[in-house]
Design goal:
10 helices, eight-stranded parallel beta sheet, alpha/beta, two-stranded antiparallel sheet
Length: about 280
Amino acid sequence: MRLRSLLFVPGDRPERFAKAAASGADAMILDLEDSVSHGSRGKARDAVADYLAIPAATKRFVRINPVDGGWLDDDFAAARGADGIMLPKAEGAQTIRLILSRLSGAMKILPIATETPQSIFGLGSYGEIADHLCGLTWGAEDLPAAIGAAGSRHADGSYTNPYAMVRSLALFGAHAAGVAAIETVYPAIKDEQGLAAYAARGAFDGFTGMMALHPLQVPIINHAFTPTAEQIDHARRVIDAFSQMPEAGVLMLDGRMIDAPHLAQARKIMARAGLTP
């Protein structure tokens, strides 16, 4: 499942569903949690269920409420027909197992894996249930609120040390589990230049996709997480070089040494581009 861009849509705003589907996002996240008031969640479930009953080309996830919120059965009923479940406030493999014990069908799960203090200590456990995941993502808003921090960012938008660490741990937790590493949202919707820089850094650091808050963010995110023609060409040449000398541990390409990590990186670039090595 290709997940460069995942666009949030409030579940109680069905008039926005078609626009989100036409945005170019690889997936929509129909939200039943934070963007919907408690009083509107019944309406949101009905709208989401009606929308999911109609086939669509765009992948559709439903962000349900946390496992301890008392809404699981209602949320699962609304999400029937979705391509996956986004699970907020996940605290490692144990939370996923709880969801699996209640969830009928074989929908994939995308945990938001850093929203509680306890969740940080479960980031290394997702490999235990990786077959049930389509990725792993993180958030920078709920965690500071949970511990009484003033925020997660400096005035220039960069993360403070605790949350920069959390971002890194989520990135490595996803790759350790062998699933897509999804960068968190960029909240300044009108700051296209800042978003481009943020998404580019995410791709550079090893994230494979990113969540979006508005359709205008989707093309910028897709661009950042799609390998360039130059990257694809170089990856092909690295793979070709090793295919011609499969017993070699180290080769020279364009005057530079390449070895097994370069080959692994080249294969990942080709996979991200949707191409066969």
